[in-house]
Amino acid sequence: MKIFKTLSATLLGLAIAAPAAAEEYNANHFFAERHSMVRGPYVDFAKRVAERTNGEVTFRVFSAGSLLPPASSLQGVRDGVAQVSYHAGTYTPAELPIANLIGNMAFYNTDPMVMAFASTEFGLTNPAALAEWADNGVVFGGGYSTSQYFMMCNTDVETLADVKGKRMRMAGGAWSRFAEFVGAVPVSIPSSEMYTGLDTGSLDCAVAAADALDSFSLKDVVTSMNTLAIGNYYAGFEWGYNAGFWQGLTAEQRRVLFDEMAYELAQHRVAFDADVATAVASAKDAGMTVLDPDAALQQALADFVIADEAALIENATSRGVENPDQVLTAFKAVIDRWEALLKDVDRTDTETLAALARSEIYDRLDADTYGVN
To answer: 88: which strand partners?
Structure first.
């Protein structure tokens, strides 16, 4: 009996001392785990958040579309299938007309670091953008930017004349309009289908960030890459939170998420560009030719950038955006601000970049009220 009482007391003491089991939340991304947009901003992010919250906020990361397919990620995070998710705005133009408006202004500034920080600040602070997130039941956590998009082809594409008639995988929107502007044929397919398209000949080129040479194994089917910078992609969000989940967090937990998103915003940009450099070098070693655009192709892109703003405004107006020209003006001001802030910053120094993201963006948010009121 004495032994039984002692054992019972010991077990009771352990039960009191042990913390309550933390709930595990779902984090969703449709890229594979090895991609830079998942490795840091989701896998590493989940570990850092769990450590800093003592396990109170623990995310289980679902990658490669294993929880939600690309087109369903906005609805999925709204409905609570995921508590946080990446979403590419191109898939939901009717639901996110403002996000697509600024996301389609991809040629105004093609510096990925600038666009990642600018899209984050705009999404967190612009009243029209904030209203759009709220209408969709999402709390915007932070943005991103891919590295610059290039034409990666299974035939040489160097000049404006070479582009004519080529079937090019485009990300939709402004990219598709650019293809038509230069006489190419835009093909709208997910990034996961680029390899098959190039391999079977249904595509001549895939227009995407050059890390795809490795992350989507395109180096096996690409023979040349043109260095014309055809914008970069940042529409939607890298982190969008379910509103109920976000509002159920404490202010201290939200502040942890702010800090870690600032870190991963910077870390992702450093990692993405490093992945591009590695992928291009590997592809060149395997025989890929790197071609510079001729003057006519460069001029065609410059002419398109000027002409396309009218199309951006017209499309946004047709989707119900009020004063889209003012939205673009506001976004340009944020872009210009970040171009100046990042001018002399070491683009490989994650800690310095993260500190800048905190001081200029996340530290200015009120963890008690952001996404709550």
So the answer is: 236
**Residue at token pair 């060149």:** 284
* 141, 240 Cβ separation under 8 angstroms: yes
Do residues 220 and 195 make contact, with C-beta atoms less than 8 angstroms apart?
yes
How many whole angstroms separate alpha carbon 123 and alpha carbon 365? 12
Burial (CB count <10 Å: 0-12, 13-18, 19+), residue 355 = middle
Domain assignment present for 301 = yes
Read off the amino acid at residue 371.
G
Distance of CA 352 to the CA centre of its chain: 21
Residue 320: CB atoms within 10 Å: 10
Q: What is the DSSP string of 53-101?
A: TTTSSEEEEE-TTSSS-GGGHHHHHHTTS-SEEEEEGGG-TTT-HHHHH
| Domain span including residue 37 | 22-147+227-362
CB-CB contact of 184 with 321 (8 Å): no
80-117 residue pLDDT tens: 999 999 999 999 999 999 999 999 999 999 999 999 99
pTM of the predicted model as reported, rounded to 2 decimal places? 0.91
CA–CA gap between residue 26 and residue 43 (Å, rounded): 12
How far apart CA 137 and CA 123 sit, in angstroms, is 14
Does 159 map to a domain? Answer: no
- The alpha carbon of residue 159 and the mean position of all alpha carbons in its chain are separated, in whole angstroms, by 30
**Tens-digit pLDDT profile for residues 298-354:** 999 999 999 999 999 999 999 999 999 999 999 999 999 999 999 999 999 999 999
Query: For the chain, what is the domain count?
Result: 1
What CATH code is carried by the domain that includes residue 300?
3.40.190.170
- The rounded distance, in Å, linking the Cα atoms of 63 and 42 is 9
